[in-house]
Amino acid sequence: MFNKRLAVTTALVASMAVTSIVFGAEQAKPTATKKPTATKKAAPAAKPAVEAKPADTTPKATMEAELKKFKNAPDTAVVAVIGGQNVTKGELKNVMWDWTSPVTLDEYVNSLVVTQALKKAGLQVTQADLDKKIAEIPVQPGETLETMLQRIKVPMARFKAGMMIQVGLEKLIRKETKLTDSDFTEFVHARHILIRSMANTPNATPEDKTKAEQEAKEKIDKVLTEIKGGKAFDEAAKEYSQDPGTKDKGGDLGWFRKGEMFQEVSTAAFSTPVGQISEPVKTFVGYHIVKTEKLGKDATPAEKEDLTEKIIKQKLPTMMREKFEELKKNAKIVNKLAPALPEPEKPAFQMGAPPNAPPTPAPKPATNKDGTAKPAMPPPPPAPPAAK
Predict the structure, then answer these.
(1) Below-70 pLDDT ranges, the chain
(2) What pLDDT does residue 366 have?
(3) Sign of dihedral through CA atoms 253, 259, 265, 269?
(4) What's the rounded Cα separation, in Å, for the pair 156 and 15?
(5) How many structural domains compose the chain?
(6) What values do phi and psi take at 147, rounded to 5?
(7) d(CA 297, CA 299)
(8) What phi, psi does 192 have (nearest 5°)?
(9) DSSP calls for 165-214
């Protein structure tokens, strides 16, 4: 579609340029005069200069501007033209009612459910809340949110309604979520120093792998000896660690839970006493020394706030879905365009039924009046051969 539009635009510009040149030439043609009596040839007419085309300063129409313009227009207003056939606003309204009204009503009901819950909880979604959430949405380079929505034909009002539902649910969850000390015991704050091993290098021979493992182990042992001799752990990390993500931060891994780091590093962090340093542990990337800084149960109030945010963000998708289902269930919704239907009945017997399910009775054989079994129906005759 873009290539077609580009081709049409290019052709249009080219045709306008050609017309301008031809028009200038026509204007420059000399008027008819008597043939000169002199034998001297007439001087050729000067070539007309091509006038520069003025730049088009007309602002381009946008979807939002057109929606605003036609919102209060009469139903006779033409909103589209297809092959000479006009589509009026009234015709579009009728089509929208027949085609999308149940879906639109359902989306509007969803927004009202959240709005009512926010009001009951004494909360509200502000424009600043929406702006902050909208700023997190990625757009293509050189594109704005407005042009992206216009490209996918989603009005800004509908988009903001969806954002309001998301932000509103987050506000409700944050207000209602109360964490206990047991939630924080899952966390530990630790640092590490990594010496990489080249044993996993592609095409490495067994001898190369053995040598790489030995060199990495000797380096990590040397670092550990310096730390035990009084060198600060963070200074050693800045000097020796080969983890680019934590090296400049003194090896700081921040707060994490079991399963969020290499298993060997996580185990060392939780099992090493606070303020102590582990013996070297090996992972598939190399050797690590781990220093346990603090356990979650000892986190300061400010640190617990950060941990609460981390816990909520991780659980937010599930919590939002559960919260929304709860709100809709308690909202006593009556949707007259799409009345609720009863759940379809499940078949009596399904694949994977329990072993003790009663077996399906076999059909009784057909019998004659005297009780004797009727003969089985013969198979249908074969189809006649196709005519040659």
Answers:
(1) 1-60, 347-388
(2) 55
(3) positive
(4) 37
(5) 1
(6) -70, -35
(7) 6
(8) -150, 160
(9) HHHHHHHHHHHH----HHHHTTEEEEEEEEEE-GGG-TT--HHHHHHHHH
Structural domain including 294 reads: 187-299
Tokens of 321: 């879905």
Are the beta carbons of 292 and 190 closer than 8 angstroms?
Answer: yes
Return d(Cα 338, Cα 369) in angstroms, integer: 54
Tell me whether residue 114 is exposed, middle or buried, using C-beta atoms within 10 angstroms of its C-beta: 0 to 12, 13 to 18, 19 or more. buried
Structure tokens at 79: 């909103």
Q: Which one-letter amino acid corresponds to residue 275? A: G
Report pTM.
Answer: 0.61
Q: What is the CATH number of the domain that holds 191?
A: 3.10.50.40
How many CB atoms sit inside 10 A of residue 184's CB? Answer: 19
Instruction: Give the model's pLDDT for residue 179.
Output: 86
Task: Tell me what pLDDT residue 6 has.
Answer: 34
* Pair of tokens at residue 215: 């060199």
Question: How remote is the C-alpha of 46 from its chain's centroid?
Answer: 63
Does residue 267 lie in a domain region? yes
pLDDT at 171: 96
Query: In this structure, which long-range contacts are made by residues 315-321, counting pairs with CB atoms below 8 Å and at least 24 apart in sequence?
Result: 316/170, 316/173, 319/173, 319/177, 320/166, 320/169, 320/170, 320/173
Confirm if 286 and 197 have CB atoms less than 8 A apart.
yes
Instruction: Please state, in angstroms and as integers, the Cα–Cα distance from residue 224 to each residue in 230, 289, 291, following that order.
Output: 10, 7, 11
In a domain, 249, yes or no: yes
**Distance (Å, whole) CA 292 – CA 273:** 7
Token pair for 27: 């204007």
282 occurs within a structural domain: yes
Q: Is the Cβ–Cβ distance between 91 and 77 less than 8 Å?
A: no
Q: Are 50 and 71 in contact (CB under 8 A)?
A: no
Helix axes 145-152, 63-71, angle to 10 degrees: 70
**Pairwise CA distance, residues 326 & 312, whole Å:** 18
Q: What is the DSSP letter of 274?
A: T
Note whether residue 223 is domain-resident: yes
What are the structure tokens assigned to 32, written together? 């008819």
Distances (CA, A) of 257 to 260, 310, 311: 6, 11, 10
- Diameter over CA atoms, the chain: 134
Q: What pLDDT score was predicted for residue 314? A: 87
Cβ–Cβ < 8 Å for 270, 176: no
DSSP state of 259: T
